[in-house]
Specification:
Chains A, B, C, D, E, F: Pathway: Cofactor biosynthesis; molybdopterin biosynthesis. Chains A, B, C, D, E, F: Its EC number is 4.6.1.17. Chains A, B, C, D, E, F: This is Cyclic pyranopterin monophosphate synthase. Chains A, B, C, D, E, F: Keywords: Lyase, Molybdenum cofactor biosynthesis. The structure is a homohexamer. Chain A has a single domain, classed as Molybdopterin cofactor biosynthesis C (MoaC) domain (Alpha-Beta Plaits), CATH 3.30.70. In chain A, 28% of the residues lie in helices and 29% in strands. Chain A has 4 helices and 5 strands. The first copy, chain A, has a 5-stranded antiparallel sheet with strand order 2-3-1-4-5. In chain A, strand 2 and strand 3 form a beta hairpin. The longest helix of chain A is centred in the C-terminal third of the chain and has 19 residues. Chain A is elongated. The two termini of chain A are 26 Å apart. Chains A and B meet through helix 1, helix 2, helix 4 and strand 4 of A and helix 1, helix 2, helix 4 and strand 4 of B. Strand 4 of chain C pairs antiparallel with strand 4 of chain D.
């Protein structure tokens, strides 16, 4: 981790750049990110309960998140393209919210935090899209990196706010 | 707004579908969404202050958000493609956070909430990407629709949590 | 329909072009296309039966088909971009095959056969991807336009081979 | 190849996932796939004969197939992104049909069957797009993997139906 | 045309934005742009002469240009998405150069200069890609708008440098 | 470099193909390309001077160029996908023109000239988009490879026309 006195993506003259990673080691890297969609108990029942016999709303969000992970370097300008070796998106429904947890792996020279965050946020936005007609006021929050491993900075994880 | 007893994007058998909007009126529609990136005062100084003479970090996030708005229907599976007629992304920096506000317009048959939300979230993720080496623990939250107008449901806005 | 003596997408000198549709009328247009994936009875049980409690394999293919429809003009070089107003993908499982039926609507100047065909083929390829480890020899066939309506050529449909 | 009792892309709980390939060996892999477009003898003459001095209709389909191969992991949700090292698309015209043969190579951890299938199907769809005004009833069939080599499953090929 | 004292894509505070075109009239608009690739007489013979019986090098560049036109709003950040109603790319070979001429039409609220320029430049880059192994020093120049019509500014054209 | 008697991207029968690079060595490769946008002194003042306190016009073009580099293999049909390890775009403003210089690195089997050229041209087109309302007659020229290193052909550079 840098010493906090400079942004790595900005050159000495303040111009943006894609950081040179050509000297970094190829290692296996994993990152897990999450987002929380807060809505109403009624909407949660629609999303996960028997009214939707195939549970397809969550499946749509899951696919969107996985595809979103693969679009990360097209969406985030200074992000490096990475060969993703696995991606999964899981849902933990609660009474009036659902936690979306995305885990991405690569064997490459940079970490996959951005891929995991993109997967979590695209999955959350896809859920919002499907419920917005019944709860326009739903909120997405706590979009953050839960844990990462691999690379020079090694293992890192955080307490997730309850 | 629907009556809350069904999800519009899911058919009677629980299968996902892209809602048929062919009978909806073409009107001018506007939506504003936001996200808040919470970090440290030091990082905020790096993002907006004199050390970055060109303020280019915010410009990168702004461009990413605008481009992201145009990718919405490729990212969100059941979203309709829309001819966006304007898009802007603004930043309101505070001591240890920055509020990202995205406003999108269209003249079309569906609203642009998803485009505004996508712009706000991609801009927020782009900022996170640029600061993650100095504050990996930064959090994106309060990603929500602030206001919308146009279409059958007319004007709508919400109080934004302070 | 042309008189069969020329290809509309190729100029008098044999060069390819995107046909000029600027003088065509904006009407509502619908097209339905299909594909059939032929595999084994065992694989069909895996795809649709109780072992997959969420039926998520079909949901993944459905989402892929809908997203594929929206990518049609990026994939098919001489195809016009179209504002799709609805898209759905359904599955009709049989003993050792599954029929994929895609229906797409637009309000525009060109038909949506290519969008429906692209949806059906991407959904079929997605199913193949999920079963290839257990039945590499599965075959996709009968990819064809079932019916179309709207535009100068009016209603058209065909008998689908049984 | 799996033992046929489970789908590799679906977890124990039935949820879809991108299979973890991080432990697989990097080897050279090749796959060949085909599709057959069936139309009329008149259309075949238009597609390949002297009326089109530059043969540009086939060239358009070839380019579309090659570009399609590179979009595979964006189209097929659970497909891994791969660095394609070569791609070609050939045509074998017959009296009232044309066989499209696509061969793709990579040096990577997963096979390229999906890339070859995507190339063949996008090329076939592109041909259909160019002939649909003269033969809307044309059919694409026999979309299948002809042969593959490399990786743990070694060489594999099949008899192609005549 | 603006009075030359401000950039339309930059707000009063210097921040970039996608200009609001929601009040502009929908009219038919056409733009023609060009680029010139300068190389050697030998390479020109390879590109257009009998050694390439199918003339496929130019066809590849033509398709790339047409597809590129459709990607314009994804590539140029502040460009509006437009429903292109036709696109063509022609080549005028000379002794040691080839002029690429792209013409794009739309029925919409903004002009299509950027689409025509993007088509011309992507076609020129595609030609360069195919000849770079034999003439790495080839140069692309004179990339400019030749003519445009439609919209508030009416007809406009320029003398093209000989 | 080939001997100038054939185009590498075209097979013996004149058909286009993506060259097989599976036997090429993985080495670090760098390429620098440029483009020059010629406009008026007034426009140059708008682009770079105090009227635009944040210099955001150049930042927008820079981001567009970097994102464009990552889209190269989607835009140029016979180009191989590459894991870009760094990309930067710089501007050298003169009295009535601005030189755009793009440098791209990879560790891979093919060079990155096309990525550098694509970055330079997309950045130039983005600048044109922002100034076209005040100088429609601006011209992009001298789009060329300045230098490359890595791979079998080693170091190469050229004099840039003054």
């Amino acid at each position: 981790m840098a010493d906090g006195t400079e942004l790595t993506h900005v050159g000495a003259d303040g111009s943006a750049r894609m950081v040179d990673v050509s000297a970094k080691a190829v290692t296996q890297r994993i990152a897990t990110a999450q987002a929380v969609l807060s809505t109403t108990p009624e909407v949660m029942r629609l999303l996960v309960a028997g009214e939707l016999p195939k549970g397809e709303a969550l499946a749509v969000a899951r696919v969107a998140g996985i595809l979103g992970a693969k679009q990360t370097s097209s969406l985030i300008p200074l992000c490096h393209p990475l060969p993703i070796s696995s991606a999964k998106v899981d849902f933990e429904p609660a009474e009036s919210s659902v936690r979306i947890v995305a885990t991405v792996k690569t064997t490459g020279v940079t970490g996959v935090e951005m891929e995991a965050l993109t997967a979590a946020s695209v999955a959350a936005l896809t859920l919002y899209d499907m419920i917005k007609a019944v709860d326009r006021g739903a909120v997405i929050g706590e979009l953050l990196v839960v844990a990462k491993s691999g690379g020079a900075s090694g293992e890192w994880s955080r307490e997730v706010p309850a």
